[in-house]
Amino acid sequence: MPRTTYREALREAHREALQRDPRVFLMGEDVGRYGGSYAVSKGLLAEFGEARIRDTPLSELGFVGAGIGAALGGLRPIVEIMTVNFSLLALDPIVNTAALYRHMSGGQFGVPVVIRMATGAGRQLAAQHSHSLEPWYAHVPGLRVLAPATLEDARGMLWPALQAPDPVILFEHAQLYNLEGELADPPPAVDIRSAAVRREGRDLTLVTYGGSLPRALEAAGALAAEGIEAEVVDLRVLRPLDMATVLASVGRTRRVLVVEEAWRSGGLAGEVLARVAEEAFFELDAAPARVCGAEVPMPYAKHLEEAAMPMPARIVAAARALMGP
Amino acid sequence: MSLPRELEFSTDVTRHERGFCLARVRDMVRIRRLEERCAQLYGEQKIRGFLHLYVGEEAVAAGVMPQLQPQDNVVATYREHGHALLRGVSMNAIMAEMYGKQEGCSRGRGGSMHLFDRATRFFGGNAIVGGGLPLATGLALADKLAPRPGCVTACFFGEGAVAEGAFHESLNLAALWRLPVLFICENNLYAMGTALARSESSIDLTAKAATYGLATAHVNGMNVLAVSEAARDAVDRVRRTQAPFFLELHTYRFRAHSMFDAELYRDKAEVERWKAHGPIHTFTGRLKAAGMMTEADFEAIDREAAAEVEAAVQFAEAGSWEPEADLLRDVTAPH
Fold first, then answer.
1. Spacing of C-alpha B25 from chain mean position
2. Chain B interface residues facing chain A, Cβ-Cβ under 8 Å?
3. What ipTM is given for this predicted complex?
4. Structurally, how many domains does chain B consist of?
5. pLDDT tens digits for A133-177?
6. How far, CA to CA in Å, does A220 sit from each of A49, A295, A325, B61, B318?
7. Range of the domain at A31
8. Torsion angle in degrees (nearest 10) through CA of B252, B258, B259, B262
9. Secondary structure (3-state) at A241
10. Based on the domain organization, do A245 and A144 belong to the same domain?
11. Of B160, B289, B297, B308, which has the most beta carbons under 10 Å away?
12. Domain's final residue, options A182, A206, A240
């Protein structure tokens, strides 16, 4: 199988979408001449031209809102926001317009826009470029929220996202762009509905998503060396949650640990655990647990940044505690 | 505050066809009758939530809307009953929406502030001040890229929106990308209770818009023919050049901001001074003086509008409540 990276897989996904559907275009800060702040769109300007690869001003509210308007007008825009922290400048059009229009209009106006953004820490970019605000977006009815964490999903999620009749927010963890591996050619089709079991195991279930998936898999490897077989569930879709896959796994393992880079309070980990408790309380052999981001603005210093993140050692320790003495 | 001096001109009504003029009277009277009845229904608790009336500002919608074509897009604010009505949304569907009935133009999910209609390309009904401007910019971008040459997106907003970043970002994008948007600023001098001079360092909004490279105009928004002529020129220009245009209409809201507003921020005398410039009676006065309309003509228009309103009330009363079992519909498309 050919080797590729997460970044290249995303780029190929864009190329495919631009080739297949003339309604698709990409816009965002530095997506054209600069090639994308994370180089996802490098080369696309030369291939598809300025009308479809549109550099925007530093104007998140304006161009995200315009992307939403263009979707209402019948196009299929992909809007790139450099990082989730900057997306807060566009929260109004995303939450007050894109997520609400179908409902407020009594079903007359859907907003088929795809909004992509980088998220997460690990690159010493400090507090204003490193947060994980996925749970905020996952809170909002009307949005579909995706977190591709594998090469297959980086390559495969964009097309079904563009086919969706409602707004889709797609989170790309900044540490994943350089993820390298093999990807089948042609790449496998993926859905934007379900969670996926990334590693099977009988002793406990690790539920995670995005940039925490590689860390959870690393932790699962370390646990296996100790004789603890962890099953790893990648949520993939943060809204609506596929709890059936999570509950099926927890039903087998009877122990659950959620791993999430976002802050603990009000995060998705709490939501997943609450639903497990509601649906499967009496199937559990241990109190549900979570490893989350420390509740601190992301520090710059490397050792402090790592201390604030759910690194494999913390996951392993929490899993051991869950297994009991 | 009074009308800027340069706006105190009287348009020569005889430059226009009688039929056109009577149609504009009818437009304004339909809005006025509808909204006066809505205020009454609010008192009777038939209509709830926020209700923002357009009374006094009717010449804006009546002047602009007939200049648009069916393929054009309209984006409006939460004070949009008149815009929806003159765009062609039926009074029945508007009234049923105010009642929260499923026969309403937004199936009762939107209410007064969120009137929508796909058939007439009426994109709301946006209750975030400035929220419609990026949306309109994007609708125009879609027309440009599709391409659908000759389409215009008309975006109505109040002068309060000029303080929002959305105004500046949208005008910049529309001018930078040369998008066919007609930005229509309904300057009624008050953002809720805050006077323009208390919120803007410079109150020349047309000058602000011009700094983004847009063509601009500003006229007396109390004079329906002045609005109509300015809107005709502006729409023609946007349609022809496919570039944005900023049109400022100086107007005034005779009634409170919403039904909860005690109007502590302005003098009654000021309101009365503006009422002297009221768009309906000044226009009908000129038409009568020119021999283009009789009192009987006006009464016929008024009677017809009143009957339409009463029929709409009956329609809304007879409407049905959406079953609670349908609560979660239209959050996302069925899949």
1. 16
2. 73, 104-110, 114, 116-118, 123-126, 128, 131, 133-143, 145-146, 165-166, 169-170, 172-173, 176-177, 329-333, 335
3. 0.95
4. 1
5. 999 999 999 999 999 999 999 999 999 999 999 999 999 999 999
6. 45, 25, 18, 65, 63
7. 3-182
8. -70
9. coil
10. no
11. B160
12. A182
